[in-house]
Fold this sequence. Notes:
Layout: E1 8-14, H1 19-29, E2 34-41, H2 47-54, E3 59-61, H3 70-81, E4 88-91, E5 108-112, H4 127-136, E6 140-147, E7 157-164, H5 171-194, E8 198-201, E9 204-207
Parallel strand pairs: 1-2, 1-4, 2-3, 4-5
Antiparallel strand pairs: 5-6, 6-7, 8-9
Amino acid sequence: MAKAATPLRIAVLLSGGGTSLENLFAAIESGLPAEVVCVLSSKKTAFGLQRAENHGVPGIAIPRRGYSDVRSFNDALHCELDRHEFDLICLLGFLSPFELRGRYAGRTLNVHPALIPAFCGKGFYGHHVHEAVLAAGVKLTGATIHFASDDYDEGPILLQGSVPVEEDDDVERLAARVQALERKLLPAAIRLIAEQRVVIEDGRVRILAARND
């Protein structure tokens, strides 16, 4: 019998509709050993805040536009995070820079809708990624779950998966295929961490074999 996982308390940062958050809630309800303890949004109008409230989770807006620079915005983010107890941060469509500040390295997951190091970096988010994939004519794309660093879309890669780029794809069809993959990869990544099977060594992730009691 595999060793029981230790449930993870998760803080979610988002900026939009929260479809990835909703998927995370569904995975938890289906047995994923995790609990969302708070949701922070960089936009007051993000529907992800309502999704959080629908599940009885505090949803807090910290509008990026209310701060003169990235540092003061992150001051506010860190101040709010300090009010909650959690093990892991998940950046689920968070469109503003999040500064780890030496506190959250190895504890912050980012979801990127492409195969890092391709189609990533500043400006590569949402439909911009899929537009670039289609323009490049590549035959495969995918999704990446990685530990965030202080640079856009960098940091140790935990999981990746690929999907084909079809000849008749447009942005919407390709995005739907990638999002379906993300819905599988994120819970799988969280489960690996909960099972204490993830080790970061020399900037790379090593996944340990499942242990038995």
